[in-house]
Amino acid sequence: MILPVVTYPNKILRQPAEPVAFPLSKEIAKLTRDMIDTVRQQDGVGLAAPQVGASARLVVINLEKEGIPAFALYNPKIVSKSLKKAEVEEGCLSLPGIFGMVRRPLKVKISAQNAEGKKISFTDNGWVARVAQHEIDHTNGILIIDLIKNYTKGGEIAKKLKDK
């Protein structure tokens, strides 16, 4: 089922999300499936549960265009990051029309749980790292408008939103 994407200034986007409990409830399992359907339909690369109105530390990453099947991470966190950073243009489904340059670590190590509750960790220095950082920020109430120093599109929209 396609879920409506919450847009800023909805308060849930600023609240730290609640941890996901295991075994997964039927509701969280359905939420995961629906989030994957939604991110695909929106042609997005990632989606966090707060973006669909759910306070859960759940993110989905959709890099199917890069040859990586869509997958979910439960209770993800960044455990280490490189000192080397890269500035790349980012947008966000919850901030339509706003794009800007965001500086993030190039390489991160992420720990999370899979759908069975098994602890997993991986290191990446590509698109998974970039998307995961953006989505994990969402579970902590952080948005790209907090990080963008140089807007490439929609700077006037962001200014109005920040003034609210």
The average pLDDT is 96
In total, the number of domains comes to: 1
| Percent in helix | 10-25%
CATH architecture: Alpha-Beta Complex
Describe the main β-sheet briefly. Answer: 5 strands, antiparallel
Measured distance between first and last alpha carbons: 32 Å
Q: What's the total number of strands? A: 8
Written as H for each helix and E for each strand, in order along the chain, the element string is: HEEEEEEEHEH
CATH class: Alpha Beta
Specify the structural class: alpha+beta
In the CATH scheme, what's the topology name? Peptide Deformylase
- Stretches with pLDDT under 50, minimum 5 residues: none
Radius of gyration over alpha carbons?
15 Å
State which percent range the strand residues make up: 25-35%
Name the CATH homologous superfamily: Peptide deformylase
Total count of helical runs of at least 4 residues: 3
Characterization of this structure:
The chain has a five-stranded antiparallel β-sheet, with helices on both faces. Strands 4-5-8 form a three-stranded antiparallel β-sheet. It is globular and about 45 Å long. The protein has helices spanning 26-41, 127-139, 155-163, and strands at residues 46-48, 58-63, 68-81, 85-91, 99-105, 108-113, 119-124, 150-153. The longest helix has 16 residues, at 26-41. With 164 residues, it is an alpha+beta fold. Helices cover 23% and strands 32% of the residues. It has a single domain (11-163), classed as Peptide Deformylase (Alpha-Beta Complex).
Note the topology.
Layout: H1 26-41, E1 46-48, E2 58-63, E3 68-81, E4 85-91, E5 99-105, E6 108-113, E7 119-124, H2 127-139, E8 150-153, H3 155-163
Antiparallel strand pairs: 1-2, 2-3, 3-6, 4-5, 5-8, 6-7
